[in-house]
Amino acid sequence: MLNLNRREFMGSAAVLAGTALATGILSAAETPRLEIATFRCDVTPPMGHPLCGGWITPVVGVDDPLEMIGYVIRGAGAPIVVCTVDWTGVLNEAHIQWRGLLAQAAGTTPERVAIQCVHQHNALFCCPEAERTVQKQGDLPHTFLPDFLKSCQERSLTALNAALKNFRPLTHVAHGQAQVQNVASNRRMFTADGKMAWRGSATKDAALKMMPDGLIDPWLKTIAFYDGATKVAACHYYATHPMSYYGDGRVCSEFVGIARKQFDAAEPGCTHLYFTGCSGNIAAGKYNDGSKEARVQLTGKIHAGIRASMDRLEPAPITSAAWATQEILPPVRNSFMADNLEQQIANKNTPLALRIRPAMMLSWLRRCEQKIPIVLSGLHLNDVSLLHLPAESFLEYQLRAQKFASNRFVACAAYGDGGPWYIPVKEAYPEGGYEVSVAFCEEGMDPILTQGVESLLKAAPA
Ligand SMILES: [Zn+2]
Description:
Bound molecules: zinc ion
Oligomer: single chain
């Protein structure tokens, strides 16, 4: 586009020698002339479709449809596509392939496409390679239906192609934040004698409810995009697992999705997107007893947070725009051995989850052996940075991101490429617990991801 000085450079790979590399970073040194378009499509699974990877009740009904919602920005180098999907996770090959398809349609490259999941659980969790492994067993159910994934990808391309004909100027950006009251709580609590007291997404246990929030990020952040005085899109970020209750086969975008839809209905000219932050160790457990009423209450609290955050938006003209990427090669868990995982998958005497999960572990092992990187990315607009991080990253990663750029307004979306499952910080490994038991990387992932995040922020225009 006009008046754009493009500068491309290779960042230095300071992450564990040889395990990470930086890719091209484009910066706009002069006032960019940007344009934006938004798109959305339905991704609600049909009746009978597996949910959450196939180990909970499949779809028996739909309480609330699921969507993929995205925006395309052009004018800061090749086009940028960012989307959020109301699914549990999009893993490995599925994530890479979908980004590739969207990139091709938008006329850009896959590393300039971010797909982040909201991580609802009555939703799809798709790892195509694991699905193929599972189907070879003959006696295991589907983890998801590849044809349905394909139909969603096709719908997303149709929606994106339509959006590409409807660009409008992107002139201003605004940010706001407000504290959400009584939603997020840390899952990894400890009793006075140092034992872990695990607090999941819902609990009726009085002792667990009495414990403090623990480490959380109370801030709901909003970044809004404007064409002149018109708010075109608003992206909301908050760090918590988004489940009130699940496992009943009733598809739902959950309390965060329902709140988002309330704003869509109230502001028809504006597209609202919700991104789940780094929430691997965060859920609503302290404040959620898993009842229907709790879902309504949690929806109200997120709605209030979004409202208060949006009340603080002050649009400013966009003077700089850049997209930064960092490829990382995570270190696979040492305990993952192909032979052993194959035995677990084939063991007909163990529960479903203990056969399907090893199939996902095997896919991750193979991917790491093939050195297929995970792409971290960041969109920098003025003093705002929107980061796109993988899988179930622990909250600490987003707190670190904010510290690395204390002069910037940093919002983190996790649940991008879901391949690694949980990504604890290294201090969590000796503590053990559920998240560590299903972390697909060694603790060396911590410095790699941390330095990757730092490099994205260092790439922000001064
Ligand atoms: Zn999770």
